[in-house]
Design goal:
Blueprint (H helix, E strand, L loop, with lengths): L4 H17 L5 H8 L4 H13 L3 E3 L7 E3 L1 H12 L2 E8 L4 E2 L6 E2 L2 H4 L4 E7 L13 E5 L9 E6 L3 E10 L3 E5 L8 E4 L3 E11 L4
Parallel strand pairs: 3-6
Antiparallel strand pairs: 1-2, 3-5, 4-9, 6-7, 7-12, 8-9, 8-12, 9-10, 10-11
Helix pairs in contact: 1-3, 2-3
Amino acid sequence: MALTKRQKQVLDFIADFVEDNGYSPSYEEIARGLSLASLATVHKHIQTLETKSYLKRGFNRSRSLELGPKYAQEHRRQRDREIPLAGVIAAGRPVEALEQRATVNFSEFTGKRDLFALEVRGDSMIDDHICEGDMILLERTNEVRDGDIVVALISGSETTLKRIYREPGDRIRLQPANAQLQPIYFLASDVQVQGRLVAVLRKYQ
């Protein structure tokens, strides 16, 4: 059975409290921490979480809450949900596509989509706030609309990150997001879209 938003908040509060303090919170601390109206409300949520195997309670003991097997199972599943880091993508001129074996965890974005990650090299997309060193998350698809930011494979050997537009004469325009750079044009038959941008992750330290 799925958790409601409030039940998940109670469970997350308990898990964070245990991690920070080494013991479980009291019902009063849960009520204060989540601005719940009464201890009866806390008790109701705890009872539901116990029924769903997210919590275990020891009776006649204070601070007796323990994280249950369902929580451990889902926490482990989320921790282990990783996406292949396929290599480096050029945001300047296209470069040779190289395969790389590594993983990046983007579990909150994944859902049921077929996703992969790339690291950005170059500055051609800086006006779209995509900078060198950023990690980008892409959905593997060749169905895109004009203006989408995509990974394009050129002539089967080079890849680049650009906005894509279909032009007259069966041509494709790959548009950089950098006022100092010009768009590049290819025959549609020479361009294969490998993925559409879903998210950008930037690490500052």
